Amino acid sequence: MPKIGMPDIRKPQLVRATMNVIERVGLHGASVSLISKEAGVSAGIINHYFGGKQGLLEETMRAILREHSRTITSALKALPKHAHYERINAIIDGNFKGFQAESEVVKTWLAFWSYSMHDPQLHRLQRVNEKRLISHLKIELKALIPQQQVLPVALGIAALVDGIWLRGALNPLGIDAGLARTMINDYLDKQISYYNDLQLG
């Protein structure tokens, strides 16, 4: 966690520098020296305000999560509360478009994702993100399918989001947001149709 007093202008500068370095050399190669050079600051500033590389990595992950949350929250606020299908698509798009699709963000996410299996704090942050996604989806799905199926379908959409994102992150052509939405909508439409037919029949 950054210490109180860290100039606000420095935080995004250091976070962006961290992502740029991770994009070039990977997480393990992203040293305090390389990051400080990229940001145009002394290594001492990183050590003073973040306690070293680990603290800066955690702040970078939090910054990505905050931006991700802001993107989805903003998109949802722009849609009517009753537009549940459109709101689910806004949640889907928030994982594949804009900030989340930038090359350095994608590579940083991918690095953190693998590293979080061995780091309790990064794992906790990853779990927070996962729970937030499931929560957003459950709120909208409640109006579209029976209550007992809300969680399984939300988990299914989340699995598709993660899987499609991961395949896109490893693809030299990058993430195809349009294809992601089409594939997830196909799953969603089938679930809605199936459970509606059950209720009717």
From TrEMBL:
Organism whose genome encodes this protein: Vibrio mangrovi
GO MF term list: DNA-binding transcription factor activity; transcription cis-regulatory region binding
PANTHER family: HTH-TYPE TRANSCRIPTIONAL REGULATOR BETI (PTHR30055:SF234), HTH-TYPE TRANSCRIPTIONAL REGULATOR RUTR (PTHR30055)
Keyword vocabulary terms for this entry: DNA-binding, Repressor, Transcription, Transcription regulation
Pathway(s) it belongs to: Amine and polyamine biosynthesis; betaine biosynthesis via choline pathway [regulation]
InterPro entries xref list: BetI_C, DNA-bd_HTH_TetR-type_CS, Homeodomain-like_sf, HTH-type_TetR-like_transc_reg, HTH_TetR, Tet_transcr_reg_TetR-rel_C_sf, Tscrpt_rep_BetI
Domain HTH tetR-type: 8-68
Gene3D superfamilies tied to this protein: Tetracycline Repressor, domain 2 (1.10.357.10)
Name of the featured protein: HTH-type transcriptional regulator BetI
Xref: SUPFAM superfamilies: Homeodomain-like, Tetracyclin repressor-like, C-terminal domain
PROSITE patterns the UniProt entry points to: HTH_TETR_1, HTH_TETR_2
Pfam family, one: TetR_C_6
Annotated function: Repressor involved in the biosynthesis of the osmoprotectant glycine betaine. It represses transcription of the choline transporter BetT and the genes of BetAB involved in the synthesis of glycine betaine. Repressor involved in choline regulation of the bet genes.
Annotated DNA-binding residue span(s): 31-50
A Gene Ontology BP annotation from the UniProt entry: negative regulation of DNA-templated transcription
Transmembrane segment boundaries: none
